[in-house]
Amino acid sequence: MKNEIEERFEDWKGREAIPGKHGGIGPASIACVVEVMENIVFVANGFNFVEYFMSSMHYSPATAANMVTNFMGTTFLLTLLGGFIADSFLTNFTTFIIFCCLELMGLILLTFQSYSPKLQPESDKTPSTLQATILFTGLYAMAFGAGGIKASLPTHGGDQLDRGNPRLISRFFNWFYFSICCGSILAVTIVVSIEESKGWFWSFTISAGTLALALLIFMAGLPFYRFKSPTGSSLTRITKVIVSAARNRNKSDLDEEMMQSLTSTDEGISHTKLKCLDKAMLNKNISAIEVAETRTFLGLLLIFFSTIAMNCCLAQLSTFSVQQGMIMDRKLFGSFEIPVPSLVVIPLLLVILSIPLYDYFGKGISSDISPSFNLNRIRLGLALSSFSMVVAAIVETTRKYVAVHYDFKISVLWLMVQYLMLTVADTRASRGSDKEQAPAKRT
Prior knowledge:
Number of domains: 3
Structural class: mainly alpha
Shape: globular
GO molecular function: transmembrane transporter activity
GO cellular component, one term: membrane
Order of helices and strands: EHHHHHHHEHHHHHEEHHH
InterPro entries: MFS_trans_sf, POT_fam
Oligomer: single chain
Main location: membrane
CATH topology of the largest domain: Growth Hormone, Chain: A
Family: Belongs to the major facilitator superfamily. Proton-dependent oligopeptide transporter (POT/PTR) (TC 2.A.17) family.
Largest sheet: 2 strands, antiparallel
Number of helices: 15
């Protein structure tokens, strides 16, 4: 939006940032490297947890799946907390450091538990109170940490680049998504394979070591970063606008000067929808920019709510689909057994290949994309996620029928179809979320 809240950038000593010395492509690239390593940790454990809870902690399949979805849901909900802290009180750099240390402490706690037999339940029992306390403390320390990282790291990378160059910003987020996919591939191949061959202790140890290295790499860029001073959270401003509009709903309309200020704030925003918010400007402490920001945020809520069902489908990749694969025939090329999470590699490779191709060939067409293009991407993602559940139901029905009537395990490769459809659905919906229409802040 035009006339956005003024942004001020500083170096690590609190002095005004110098263009060419602070920020730029190099420091932004560090965020991409760190994201690869952090996502290795998050994705590997996200896929491994359901088996860990069943085999080592002796929870039932239903309880294990529920624990994983609670962990994932908590992680992504806590991105709101991380964004609020970074916007209102701390820089994105400081927020990342704090939450990364928190996730690392959770991993260390889980590593220690996986190493000590005394902290694990006996073969025929569920965890004791102490054992469960250690497990859930480590698990939710990871959730808090990962949530804060996901809120602060991409924004920190974007802050290193010139906001006046939207093409450069767009390319950064394309390559940041590329980093997410690379981390996911390494997670579901290398780390998952280590877990199957070496055990949980080594899996958690490698995860903790990888995250610690990511933290050191991120901190090494300190002299080259530029830092944006906190200017307040969007959620605070949006709440203030809504409350003010509600209080002033019965008052007279805005005068001509206020209407002129509102309509000139941003030519790209429709001023015919949610006109009830305009009366918030009767409060002299609320600006036209804040009203426009609130209108945009409320318009995006419908898109947000529409993706909830899709994310319920995506949760099956790390829960039910993993449990399915564990009782299917995983042998390939003779005696080699493929880890179930590794089935997502082929879809992720397709995504990875598409990003540099789009970055290279998309320069000439990106400006010609119609406003409905990104919404159509989201619609495609939602449709594919629905069809993937139909496919998953057919595969599970077939698996059970063959197992009961023929005492035979069907190949785990049957799961590839739903993995492919869900991965493409997630990609389409994620890339279809047009950040150009989002509020200036995350929270």
